[in-house]
Design a protein that fits this description.
The protein starts with a helix and ends with a helix. Helix content is 79%, strand content 0%. By secondary structure, it is mainly alpha-helical.
Length: 282
């Protein structure tokens, strides 16, 4: 919602200011300039990006308009799931959860927390590390190192769309100059025309520079930054899971391990101690 509002504000401020100075709006409507700049930007993106990067950007670009950080309810579900798993491991032994982590979609524990099951990466992260815990006598220090490596790799992969879009934004002003130069070339071919014709042609050429800069700093660049924020938000859930698992392997009781994890949840989505306690009882 805020992305759309921001785009409207950018266009409103730029076009509105232009109109207040009695500018002719028709001069800014140059679809050929947009074709040159946009087409060249997309082509350059294809040249510079392997197929998996193109696919990743295509899948993630829509998240700018729909993605939200994990809510308090979602964090509570993650903490509830971890508490249930830890309690079962403490009461029935490590092997007791083997069936749950091998097929989480049919697990009596996991199916109680549908929002967690929707996140393939979170479920995979939990299950893979629980498999390490039950199959090897791993220390909390070793487990933390393993998870840090996985989180770093996942974070690097999640940032690829943001970096790719930001690079497109960096090139747009130069592509705007390309469009402007082509407009000047066309203007020089009309050198024998009256001044009003030449003026209109030069103005149309300069719109290319204007569009390149506006698209770069007003739209595409901010979208790249937004994708970066989304990647950072996604990592917070993994951080919570990591703290809980490391604390439990380190010897903490299930409720204490979950409490450690609660402390690292961002303040805007952090459930209170009483809220968590009530969720655990339910």
């Amino acid at each position: 919602m805020f992305v759309i509002i921001g785009m409207v504000v950018v266009l409103g401020a730029v076009i509105g200011g232009y109109l207040l100075e009695h500018g002719n709006i028709h001069l800014l409507f140059q679809p050929i300039e947009l074709l040159i700049i946009g087409g060249a930007a997309i082509g350059a993106f294809f040249i510079s990006s392997p197929s998996k990067v193109v696919s990743s950007v295509s899948k993630n670009i829509s998240r700018v308009f729909s993605a939200k950080g994990a809510s308090k309810a979602e964090f509570l579900e993650v903490l509830g799931l971890l508490n249930a798993i830890f309690s079962k491991m403490r009461k029935e032994g490590l092997i007791a959860i083997e069936g749950d982590i091998e097929n989480p979609k049919e697990s009596a524990i996991f199916t109680k927390y549908p929002s967690v099951l929707k996140s393939h990466h979170a479920v995979s992260f939990i299950c893979d590390n629980l498999k390490v815990i039950i199959s090897a006598n791993v220390s909390s220090f070793e487990l933390e190192n393993i998870m840090e490596l996985e989180m770093e790799s996942h974070h690097h992969e999640a940032l690829i769309p943001a970096h790719s879009v930001s690079k497109i934004a960096d090139g747009l002003p130069a592509l705007g100059i390309v469009a402007a130069v082509l407009g000047v070339v066309l203007t020089m071919a009309k050198i024998s025309e009256p001044p009003e014709v030449l003026g209109h042609s030069i103005g149309a050429a300069l719109v290319g520079t204007f569009l390149g800069v506006l698209l770069s700093y007003g739209f595409v660049g901010p979208i790249g930054t937004h994708l970066e924020h989304i990647a950072e938000e996604d990592m917070k859930l993994f951080q919570v899971i990591k703290i809980a698992l490391v604390s439990f392997v380190g010897g903490a009781a299930p409720q204490i391990a979950v409490e450690y994890a609660r402390r690292v949840i961002p303040s805007d989505a952090k459930p209170g101690f009483t809220e968590l306690e009530e969720a655990m009882r339910k």
